[in-house]
Design goal:
The chain has about 230 residues and is of the alpha/beta class. The chain is built from 7 helices and 6 strands, in the order βααβαβαβααββα. It has a single domain, classed as Decaprenyl diphosphate synthase-like (Undecaprenyl pyrophosphate synthetase, 3-Layer(aba) Sandwich). A 6-stranded parallel sheet has the order 3-4-2-1-5-6, with helices on both faces. The longest helix is centred in the middle third of the chain and has 24 residues. The radius of gyration is 18 Å and the shape is globular.
Length: about 230
């Protein structure tokens, strides 16, 4: 990519369309999720190569528990497989992986795996890769307010409120990408996307590749960001 000085610092992606990708090919939905893992691996690599500093993906929402149990089990089997296979590769590339969401609600095996991964992240990263699991933006804001109440915080401003969010210490989202042609953000990073640029592509997530990522970044670079002001 050109125009390195105007690259988005933080890209967030709603990885949508695995099921429809599979249906289009006469395959079970689980095949779409497996193909989605390959797309995720490509996207992490391509973001790193492009100099993106933060990548956050919407992997599993608080609403996704309503999906069929077999599909949920497959999703988390793939998640555990991805972590065990990829974490050391990410570390070698100086990519830090972290997780946000209501992680305490997961089963012990997933919580232990997440904790084990966390113990390996004691290095200065070149990119931070964040996975949103059991995540909902409204719940995040409610959890932040409840934490403020527990700490007896009597006054707050926008900057200090950030410290109570799951994403504390991370910059706001510059570019939000959603695949599969859907035109909504589905309760994802509502606070952090206040001034984000949105990019929607018809491509299903398993088809998201370097060309798609470059198109999203190029669209971002053509826009003039005003942050609510006049220029």
């Amino acid at each position: 990519m050109s125009q390195k000085e105007t690259l988005p610092r933080h890209i967030a992606i709603i990885m949508d369309g695995n099921g429809r990708w599979a249906k289009k090919r006469g395959l079970p939905r689980t095949a779409g999720h497996r193909a989605g893992i390959k797309a995720l691996r490509r996207t992490i690599k391509n973001c790193k190569n492009n100099g993106i500093k933060y990548l956050t993906v919407y992997a599993f929402s608080t609403e996704n528990w309503a999906r069929p149990k077999d599909e949920i089990n497959t999703l988390f089997s793939l998640f555990k497989f991805f972590l065990r296979r990829e974490v050391n590769k990410l570390i070698k590339q100086k990519i830090k992986i972290q997780f946000i969401g209501r992680l305490h609600e997961f089963s012990d095996d997933i919580k232990i795996l997440i904790e084990e991964v966390g113990t390996k992240m004691n290095f200065e990263p070149e990119m931070t890769f964040t996975v949103a699991l059991n995540y909902g933006a409204r719940q995040e804001i409610v959890d932040a307010v409840n934490e403020m109440i527990r700490r007896d915080v009597s006054e707050i401003d926008q900057m200090s409120f950030n410290d109570f969010l799951y994403t504390a210490g991370m910059p706001d989202v510059d570019l939000l990408v959603r695949t599969s042609g859907e035109l909504r953000i589905s309760n994802f990073l509502l606070w952090q996307c206040a001034y984000a640029e949105f990019y929607f592509t018809e491509a299903f997530w398993p088809d998201f590749d370097e060309k798609e990522l470059n198109a999203a970044i190029a669209a971002y670079q053509r826009r003039e960001r005003r942050f609510g002001g006049l220029k």
